[in-house]
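Many introductory courses stop at the sequence. We go one step further.
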Amino acid sequence: MNTIRNKNKNGRPTKEAAEKKGYKVTLKMATEEYYSLKSKARLAGITRSEYIRGCIQSSVVKERLSSELMGQIRQLSGMANNVNQLARKANAAGYVEAHRNCMDTMKGLDNIIKRIEDGC
């Protein structure tokens, strides 16, 4: 006979290399976080490790804004504040149309700032 014999004939079948978990990660949590993880995994009917692996696979992480971009946001915020002050003065002086233009410009600046902060 030219068949290969399995030594552990009645044992668990060996896993392929892709199925094996080769890395162990140690994680520190606060008590509240630990019990939250424990209860969510139990509700899902899976182990804590499976729950964490699932979270890693399905999560989206935004990168931090660069210092250059943060500087630009600060400049835009300053411009928006200046426009707001001009709008108040125009409104107080009776320049209604100038007030409307300033308010529209300010809303546009605010929208730009929000889009930048949200990652476009």
